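Input (structure):
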């Protein structure tokens, strides 16, 4: 398994897919369907961009597995699986807010968070033409600039979070925000988890936390953060994933995890 080759493929396809998403956005966007809840939408562009990524990957790497947000998963035989969100930030995309990204990760091992080992990642934000990418052991990069997570100052941490599409979870989301504000100089909710993680890697955010993420929301971004010297985890002792995803530099990470555990531990919001 050649991680550098996977990295090159991830970067190339993310660029092509991002250009397609941007072109389709400029032509106008229609919501194609709702998914888990009325707020959870998919556009024709999400499906078309995922198909493009699938086609390119199966031409280049026919034996690899595929897990994407908008189509059925397919197991592979090579030991490598691609974890793909064709458009992360779909609600931004549908509203014409330019903060969205294509997220592509190549992982080895069982294709489940906590079981996989991410090898290569690309998160491409096409409107601002920013390509965040990483290869295992080779650092995280924004274009040709090497990334490093921030060190928090006395002014407090610039934190980011997200709220899932299920209204039943919002009380818990807000309880976590309330608890973590003690660490914060301010809070962002920008609307694309892959970019939240990429921004932690770049030091544009000090820390990020969110419950309810899907594998394609965090697979690529998590490798960016760890390759930039940061930590990514879930509930204490757990892997990042649906229960909780936390990303930050060392020090802040542990403080965030402890406060989140006060909310979500035994007797908390669960
Ligand atoms: C969503 C975004 C959002 C996060 C949600 C995700 P999507 O992904 O990353 O920021 O809060 O949990 O589902 O639906 O735009 O691909
Ligand atoms: Ca998506």
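Output (sequence):
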């Amino acid at each position: 398994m050649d991680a550098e080759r996977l990295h090159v493929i991830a970067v190339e396809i993310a660029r092509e897919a991002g250009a397609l998403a941007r072109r389709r956005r400029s032509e106008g966007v229609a919501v194609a369907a709702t998914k888990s809840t009325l707020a959870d939408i998919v556009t024709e562009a999400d499906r078309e961009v995922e198909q493009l990524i699938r086609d390119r990957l199966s031409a280049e790497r026919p034996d690899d597995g595929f897990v994407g947000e908008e189509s059925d998963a397919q197991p592979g035989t090579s030991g490598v699986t691609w974890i793909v969100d064709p458009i992360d930030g779909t609600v931004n995309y549908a509203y014409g807010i330019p903060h969205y990204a294509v997220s592509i990760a190549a992982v080895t091992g069982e294709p489940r968070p906590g079981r996989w080992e991410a090898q290569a990642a690309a998160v491409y934000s096409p409107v601002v033409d920013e390509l965040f990418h990483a290869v295992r052991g080779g650092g995280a990069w924004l274009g040709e600039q090497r990334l490093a997570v921030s060190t928090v100052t006395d002014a407090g941490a610039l934190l980011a979070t997200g709220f899932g599409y299920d209204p039943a979870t919002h009380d818990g989301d807000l309880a976590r925000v309330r608890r973590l504000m003690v660490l914060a100089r301010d809070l962002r909710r920008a609307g694309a988890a892959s970019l939240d993680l990429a921004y932690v890697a770049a030091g544009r955010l000090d820390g990020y936390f969110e419950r309810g993420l899907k594998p394609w929301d965090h697979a690529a971004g998590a490798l960016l953060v760890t390759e930039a010297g940061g930590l990514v985890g879930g509930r204490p002792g757990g892997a990042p994933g649906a229960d909780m995803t936390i990303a930050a530099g060392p020090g802040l990470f542990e403080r965030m995890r402890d406060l989140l555990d006060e909310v979500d531990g035994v007797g908390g919001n669960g």
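Notes: Residues 69, 85, 88-91, 162-164, 191-193, 210, 212-213, 217 surround D-MYO-inositol-1-phosphate (ligand 1) (CB under 6 Å). The first strand starts at residue 31 and ends at 34.
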